[in-house]
Amino acid sequence: xxxxxxxxxxxxxxxxxxxxxxxxxxxxxxxxxxxxxxxxxxxxxxxxxxxxxxxxxxxxxxxxxxxxxxxxxxxxxxxxxxxxxxxxxxxxxxxxxxxxxxxxxxxxxxxxxxxxxxxxxxxxxxxxxxxxxxxxxxxxxxxxxxxxxxxxxxxxxxxxxxxxxxxxxxxxxxxxxxxxxxxxxxxxxxxxxxxxxxxxxxxxxxxxxxxxxxxxxxxxxxxxxxxxxxxxxxxxxxxxxxxxxxxxxxxxxxxxxxxxxxxxxxxxxxxxxxxxxxxxx
Length: 281
Hints:
The protein is of the alpha+beta class and 281 residues long. It has one domain: Alpha-D-Glucose-1,6-Bisphosphate, Chain A, domain 4, CATH 3.30.530.20. Helices cover 25% and strands 29% of the residues. It has seven helices and ten strands. The protein has helices spanning 48-57, 116-119, 185-197, 200-215, 217-225, 253-265, 269-273, and strands at residues 23-28, 34-39, 62-65, 74-77, 87-93, 107-113, 124-135, 138-145, 149-163, 166-178. It has an eight-stranded antiparallel beta sheet, with helices on both faces. The protein has a two-stranded antiparallel sheet with strand order 3-4. Helix 1 crosses helix 5. The longest helix has 16 residues, at 200-215. The radius of gyration is 19 Å and the shape is globular. The N and C termini lie far apart (39 Å).
């Protein structure tokens, strides 16, 4: 249950990517810790510098929607463009860079719901995470608990993909670790409590949420990035041709399989994740 109120859905007219456009795996370790790996299809028309710019700025941006039903002429947080239904708010606090952008140690408070249209508030997120990595190649945020240390880490990797000199899009790879790496009765109890909130059912809904979320970069991010010189007057109009651009699948099956196998055999999932290091892509 929650007392949060979700804004009205944004009917942008986008063709949303299906789940089978990405490789997805969820694995439970013997101590009850969960590992999620998701390898997205290429983000066509999107460059890595655009995604880096987005992570530095999205919590502070507002966008005018001149022709979106229920929002005509209204200015809304840019976070509402990143998903047509599931997003509520994202706010920074604590120690930020001089320009107000996030850096290591910044806190980010995220409010959203997984597949809200289907599940309502069954799978809510209303939590503060700490930023652990901000780079031109990725983003990491997580949570710690006294005594146990890390109990959650979300690590995103991205890089430009080329065929010769031709830019194909951006490769976007996501890994999540939920739970402490310790393996004792108290640690298993903590992991069980965490899995009751962020377990397999939650991540089944999250899979659909994230495939849509990341896929929407193709629709809105190049438009906003082109307006980056005047962030006070951002505008997004509905596309005239929302037709899909063809079927896709996860970009790198070999990498995906290797990461899933590596997590399964690692003695410390957080060490294997290397969340605070430059991307392995």
